[in-house]
Amino acid sequence: MNLLALQQMKARGEKIAVLTSYDASFAALSDKAGVEVLLVGDSLGMTIQGHHSTLPVSLRDMEYHTRCVANGVQNAFIITDMPFGSYQKTPEQAFENAALLMAAGAQMVKIEGGTIMRDTVRFLVERGIPVCGHLGLTPQSVHQLGGYRVQGRDEDAARQLLQDAKALADAGAGMLVLEMVPAALAATISQSVTIPVIGIGAGKDCDGQVLVIQDMLGIYAGKSPRFVRNFMQDASSIEQAIMHYVTAVKDQSFPAPEHSFE
Ligand code: KIV
Ligand code: NA
């Protein structure tokens, strides 16, 4: 799997299945089950480390889990989150830290934020580091946003999100994650850029879907958000649950309206 193939999937209208991954065992299982992209998400701050936000995750944590995942993967494309504080200061800071994640086995790095991140995206991409954007609910800004809530609900916020998506794409971002935005807005954004848009709580009309693996297996100790579906419910093994997830993403039976926001 590679970025070009993922962009061709979007062009063909084939949905992209993405799951988070933090270790070699689950990475190998997801890879075998047909997941095209594994995201080493800073959600590991919650799922692995037991924190209440992604803010305490360090670059060393992300390097370690990226190496673990890379060791388990044959085919899937690996994206690693840049953790809070590792890229916001300057493009140079972002490059230095992104280079460490790429050396650990990432094939793309993901950063949160819109137009403010445009120069950083361009700086990395021009120097050979593919970048995935992340808009909507950006968990590293949870204290600024006032909680884990739907974004882009009013007209101004919706217009700003669309503008941010275009700015990131124009700066050379190769992919975009949209988290907790109304389904209709996510559909518009997906149609407005040529790069794959991966949704989470963003409706069925994105170019692909991502879930946190502990959420979709029903094993997260905390409260899972409403956009999650537990794929373990009708499965007899973890591998089968992941296969069902891939199928549901491809045939657009997930996310259903009850997993989406109006
Ligand atoms: O950290 C993460 O798992 C993520 C996804 C939920 C998009 O950023
Ligand atoms: Na993340």
TrEMBL record:
It is found in: Cytoplasm. Its EC number is 2.1.2.11. Pfam families: Pantoate_transf. Mg(2+) binds at residues 42, 81, 112. This is 3-methyl-2-oxobutanoate hydroxymethyltransferase. The active site is at 179 (proton acceptor). It catalyses: (6R)-5,10-methylene-5,6,7,8-tetrahydrofolate + 3-methyl-2-oxobutanoate + H2O = 2-dehydropantoate + (6S)-5,6,7,8-tetrahydrofolate. Homodecamer; pentamer of dimers. GO terms for cellular component: cytoplasm. Catalyzes the reversible reaction in which hydroxymethyl group from 5,10-methylenetetrahydrofolate is transferred onto alpha-ketoisovalerate to form ketopantoate. HAMAP family: PanB. 3-methyl-2-oxobutanoate binds at residues 42-43, 81, 110. The gene is panB. GO terms for molecular function: 3-methyl-2-oxobutanoate hydroxymethyltransferase activity; magnesium ion binding; methyltransferase activity. Its cofactor is Mg(2+). SUPFAM superfamilies: Phosphoenolpyruvate/pyruvate domain. It comes from Methylobacillus rhizosphaerae. Gene3D superfamilies: Phosphoenolpyruvate-binding domains. CDD domains: KPHMT-like. Keywords: Cytoplasm, Magnesium, Metal-binding, Methyltransferase, Pantothenate biosynthesis, Transferase. Pathway: Cofactor biosynthesis; (R)-pantothenate biosynthesis; (R)-pantoate from 3-methyl-2-oxobutanoate: step 1/2. Belongs to the PanB family. Its main location: cytoplasm. Binds 1 Mg(2+) ion per subunit. GO terms for biological process: methylation; pantothenate biosynthetic process.
